[in-house]
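If your schedule permits, I should be very grateful for your opinion on a structural question. The matter concerns a single protein, recorded as an amino acid sequence and a row of backbone structure tokens. Could you please explain, in whatever detail you think fit, how the structure tokens follow from the sequence? I set the record out below, with my sincere thanks for your time.

——
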Amino acid sequence: MQPAQPPFRRRGKKIRVGLSHVTVLNESVERNVIWHILGAGAQGLLWAYGLHQSHQHCRLLVRNSIPGAMATYQSGDRTVHFSVSMLTAELVQEPIEYLLVTVKANQARQALQSIRSELSDDAIVVLMQNGIGVESLARAVLPPRTRFLLGSSTHGSYRQSANHIVHAGQGQMLIGDDTGQISADHPAIQLLQQTPLNVRWHDNIQRVLWHKLAVNACANPLTALLNCRNGELRQQPVAQSWLPALIEETCAVLAAEGHPLAVSELRQKIEQVLQITAANFSSTQQDYLAGRETELAFINGTLIRCAEIHGIEVPAHREILRIVEQRGSLGAWQALSNS
């Protein structure tokens, strides 16, 4: 058995990260810290792997319970098999105090409603969705004393099969709080930073989310319509013909929202993301290919709504969102080429 990691302290609390569990001691009351993960997609499984590797308890909240499920993590030539508890919300026996929400933005409202009664009154909820808008609906759905953290992942990952995740691109988990309720030295943040997922605190998480939205709004619809991996966009003539207009419109809206990016900066960010996650399929591409609703209402849709407020014209974003929403995968290339 490996020795426990050294304790760290904050405001009278002592957190000990041991081999099999994490214990919080506060005023002589001892209890296990259990992370619950709402959503068993690629990001949920990535968090489950990270928590497992740092010897922390976690449970995936799913539609059909599999208490002793096995999952697979793959990164290059490295493969790790690990056990994970998959439970329905009804089988959770104690109030949920630490919740990672990894369902997609368009699934968040229904998913949060399904676990509302299981949350403790002052639970810490980490929202990891793409786009803008989930925080406001989460505040409307969950108890008023719930404390929220906002997160953004730059990891590239996708599911090879139901419980098999491929970590296609190493990145960061950026987490922050724009309300001032939680700070970087909070025990929850310290625990997440024990994982191998490169978790970092960011003081301006809204800017992070807007800048990620900017990249996703330009790249994700194209990966869906051209049915390609992220890195393949760089060699797609049709994608390269669309990107200049999408980038310019995006930068105009970001400036109006107070999170400016120069056109050259956004193009560089897009290039970096496409390079780092070259082998990855975007979540939009996967949803589109499977005939599911995509997250673009929270990405391009948010951009369009903000453009309307500021009186900015965004014809390229309107058109590409229309193509995604109205056309199936057959003829997608022709749809783009003839637009």
About this structure: Confidence is low (pLDDT under 50) at residues 1-31, 329-333. The longest strand covers residues 66-75. Residues 87 and 264 are 46 Å apart (CA to CA). DSSP finds eleven helices and 15 strands in the chain.
